[in-house]
């Protein structure tokens, strides 16, 4: 039940100070003990970067240890890093409110509403019960304020009020939620109400899956208003009461991950008996934004730990892979500037029989961010037909880098030296030489040589250990 979640959350925060003091006193004379090592919950069927843990041959230490029965992690561009029962249907409780906010904000984007549109709390909205923003029948407020009441304390009252105001009716709004889910490519999502309650009078077929929730979160976090609300923590709102008063309502965030994880940037909690402790969270370490969904974890605190574990696991397994790796170097002079560069290849000059052009990458310092558990990097080189006078910096080919058959970078090969074309007399000599070589079956141009290497990708966490 969502009201249980909110009561626990409030009590946990209010009692935190007292508990901390008691703990300090209790430990003052006690010996310091090392923290207990948590038992890892890693499953062979868990999917890492599109392939099962068992098929990849990953060790327990290389995989995230989480308690949630359903989980999914992807970045803002849609790259999926981890899945556990990610497409299996399950209740998602108040995580539903992500879609409630999405539909309301889409109405703003389309011009059908504004953030200043008045939301009115009906008797039905005020009476929905359980997780609440303490709204009363007759309260009015701008839509932006109502969204705060929806997302910060997980107000079921705000959910119904928004649905009735924006949709004209709750049923019409829920239909828009389902239409949006289909538009986002959700594969197994059904909404029957805008708040996520799933028992008693709200029992039915409302469900989703971790993969679908991630798509909702990804879309929602593109909206600046949504990002600001879910990432803002505790706040206060002012509503207009039917009796003419304007009370201030303190809203306490249910997202405790932001209290202790510096990369956390919010989103939405959920809890019912059927969904269990659940959380859709977002994190940004300055380089990459991730969305983690954990459903049916083992406790309210553990759902946040599950999300943190997944975020850190992705961040810890990302590395910058240098593309140019050659033991041979050359001095490259372009516009008077001399630079020592790695020689990636020797490319045949087709007007000569025995001459090649030393080549490097267009950016010899280039690197690409990769996920180390996804395996080694391979390369393929394609050489242009090189003719005429070649100057340092001229394109002479292309290198494509792949990891597990997926292209991760395509870069130009450029000459790192000047090579002149043969003059008239040299050209005549080469013509006769090629004539005799053709008769004897000898090569008529130099062979291409690949000097660039692709070092093995090493799990950096294993190296650190």
TrEMBL record:
Residues 61-297 form the Peptidase S11 D-alanyl-D-alanine carboxypeptidase A N-terminal domain. GO terms for molecular function: serine-type D-Ala-D-Ala carboxypeptidase activity. GO terms for biological process: cell wall organization; peptidoglycan biosynthetic process; proteolysis; regulation of cell shape. The active site is at residues 94, 97, 154. Coiled coil: none annotated. Residues 1-40 form the signal peptide. It comes from the Bacteria. Substrate binds at residue 268. Pfam families: Peptidase_S11. Keywords: Carboxypeptidase, Cell shape, Cell wall biogenesis/degradation, Hydrolase, Peptidoglycan synthesis, Protease, Signal. SUPFAM superfamilies: beta-lactamase/transpeptidase-like, Penicillin-binding protein associated domain. Removes C-terminal D-alanyl residues from sugar-peptide cell wall precursors. Belongs to the peptidase S11 family. This is D-alanyl-D-alanine carboxypeptidase.
